[in-house]
Amino acid sequence: MKKNLFLIIFLNSIFILSFSSNLIAKKAAIVIDFDTEEVLFEINADTKNYPASLTKIMTLYIVFDYIKKGKLTYDSQLSVSSVAASRSPSKLYLETGSSIKVKDAVNALIIKSANDVATVVAENISGTEKEFAILMTGYAKNLGMNNTTFKNASGLPNRAQLTTARDIAKLSHALISNFPDEYKLFNQTKFSYKGKTYKTHNKLMLSYEGADGIKTGYIKASGFQLAFSAVRDDKRLIGILFGGDTGNQRNKSLKIIMDKEFAELNITSIVNEKKIVKQESKEIETDSYSIVVGTFKYRNNAEKQIKLIKNKYPVSTRDKTSNVVLIKVSGKQLYESRFENFSKKEAYDACKRLEKYNRDCFVRS
């Protein structure tokens, strides 16, 4: 049913497979619920495509991981080789023998999508871009991206560099989940380097309600690609679209799909009617419900459980008070890991989300 509706909406056969000499990659799309990783929409999600500059999401993922592991810092200087300086645009036009700080490299990859910077990162981490591509593919396999092979750090044309819409959704989800603070950088609209200001290529992010990242891509063989994330009414959706004929068409197409999936979740805007009703009835509906996410013999274990739930499932517990509560069961003292100040609906919705991840949860009033 969804597929038929989608094909009707896109009268120009936007998702018919194309095998012309100029566009050999297939058109594809997928939308997933960030909290549950449930696929809400998909078409051709497992057909192989050229990732174009969506490749840089993995390059950035590795940079963030290296920073987390102490192998790099944002102030680390990365040297520029003649190979890197020779990369074709989009680029910063870095000069051979110069250097660039990691923090500037990260901004250049996110906002300018600079190919010379991608090679700089690759060579400084792995020695050569070829070796870095092997590292990238290893990271991909560890994230469950089983249909992805990387051959360079930028997404510049390479027949063997292939991925799928589903795999890019997995990568986008992993980056947002594992590096939530770093992900905030994807919401930037511009950055300055050596006196010049560069503006984001992600035009849909500038106009779409609730959008906060993530990355655009284009090479002639792939068409226009987009990995995209938006949050409305505390619900994040990740959308991926491959093979747009133009940047504008790509943006309009993904907007229609994302709007449709938010609407099917009864979410039409950041402040929708449902949320307004909740605000108006706040005096009547008290936030007196708690959720219990674990019961333990030792307080230390209960505290660890709270930290785990906060870190792994922030949507379910955002802005809620956490507490370890001593209870007695059959004469024994136990410690409950609780999150408090929920409305009844919020509490049951939170438990429902956590249970989808096989986490114990029940509601206390």
Brief rundown of the structure:
With 365 residues, the chain is α+β, with helices and mostly antiparallel strands. The protein has helices at 2-9, 55-68, 82-85, 102-112, 115-126, 129-142, 165-178, 180-183, 203-207, 247-264, 273-280, 299-312, 314-317, 344-356, and strands at residues 28-33, 39-43, 77-79, 99-101, 190-193, 196-199, 211-219, 223-232, 235-244, 289-296, 321-329, 332-342, 362-364.
Percentage beta strand? 15-25%
Which percent range fits the helix content? 25-40%
| Low-pLDDT segments | 1-24, 271-286
How far the N terminus sits from the C terminus, by CA atoms, comes to 40 Å
General form: globular
Structural class, please?
A: alpha+beta
CATH architecture of the largest domain: 3-Layer(aba) Sandwich
Kindly report the CATH topology of the largest domain. Beta-lactamase
Strand order of the largest sheet: 2-1-9-8-7
- Report the top-level CATH class of the largest domain: Alpha Beta
Largest sheet: 5 strands, antiparallel
Radius of gyration equals: 23 Å
Number of helices: 14
- At the fourth level of CATH, the homologous superfamily of the largest domain is DD-peptidase/beta-lactamase superfamily
Order of helices and strands: HEEHEHEHHHHHEEHEEEHHEHHEEHE
What is the mean pLDDT?
Answer: 86
Give the count of structural domains: 2
Number-wise, the strands total 13
